Automatic annotation (TrEMBL):
Coiled coil: none annotated. Pfam families: KYNU_C (PF22580). GO terms for cellular component: cytoplasm. One of its GO terms (biological process) is L-tryptophan catabolic process to kynurenine. This is Kynureninase. It comes from the Eukaryota. Keywords: Pyridoxal phosphate. The keyword Calcium does not apply. One of its GO terms (molecular function) is pyridoxal phosphate binding.
Length: 127
C-alpha cells in the first residue's frame, strides 16, 4: 500500500487495509471449498410434513438461513428444548424458527445432529 503524501494519506478512498485483508482470506477459504455453488449444496433436510418452509424453497433464491413455520406445536417450547439440547437457532413470534446452516463452518454431521435434536424436540412437545 502506498500512502499519499501529507494529510492526504489519512483520507479514506479505498477499503481499509485490514478489512480488505480479512476479505481476501475469506474469499480464499470460499475458493478452497470449491466456490459458492459448492457451499450451497449443503441443504437442511427435515421431514417436510412437520413444518412449512417460509423462505424460498429454491436454494438459488435464498441464502443459508431458513425460516420454518410450525403450526402444530408451541414453537417457543420447541426453541427452548433445542437450546437445552445444544442446538443454536432463532425464535421469532408468532411461530417461526430460523435456522442457519453455514457451509463454511457447519458440517453435514452438524446438520444431521440438529435434525436429530429437532425430531427429539417434536417427540417431546407433541406427545
Amino acid at each position: 500500500m502506498e500512502l499519499a503524501k501529507g494529510a492526504d494519506a489519512y483520507r479514506i478512498s479505498n477499503p481499509p487495509l485490514l478489512l480488505a485483508a480479512a476479505l481476501t482470506v475469506s474469499l480464499d477459504i470460499v475458493k478452497s471449498c470449491g466456490g459458492m455453488h459448492r457451499l450451497r449444496e449443503n441443504p437442511l433436510a427435515l421431514p417436510n410434513n412437520q413444518y412449512q418452509l417460509v423462505t424460498p424453497s429454491n436454494p438459488s433464491e435464498r441464502g443459508a438461513q431458513l425460516t420454518l413455520s410450525f403450526t402444530f406445536a408451541n414453537v417457543e417450547k420447541v426453541y427452548e428444548n433445542l437450546l437445552q439440547l445444544g442446538a443454536i437457532c432463532d425464535y421469532r413470534k408468532p411461530s417461526f424458527l430460523r435456522i442457519s446452516p453455514i457451509p463454511l463452518y457447519n458440517s453435514f454431521e452438524d446438520v444431521y445432529l440438529f435434525v436429530k435434536c429437532l425430531r427429539q424436540t417434536f417427540n417431546n412437545t407433541t406427545n
